[in-house]
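Lecture 7 notes: from sequence to structure.
We start with the chain below.
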Amino acid sequence: MDIQDQNELAKARQMEEMKKQMLSVMLTKEAYERLSRVRSVNPQTVAHVEMYLIQLYQAGKFNEQITDAKLKEILQILSEKKDFKITRR
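Predicted structure tokens for the same chain:
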């Protein structure tokens, strides 16, 4: 592993740590735990939720901690699948 790879790895770790700190401030303890449990089942959805929450925070639209109930709503909205039908003729 060369120095450039080590620097990139260190930056990635630092960004991940910053993200964890932001989320721990934004979410109640219960909501943070739920997000951790969902991550083990559906990491892609959690990545979308995390991006959404961080964007809210950075845009200044974050004004109170997100509760477990609110996180459930966000997860449901962002994980809805679009249903479509294919009809044959």
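Points to note: DSSP finds four helices and no strands in the chain. The chain has one domain: 3-75.
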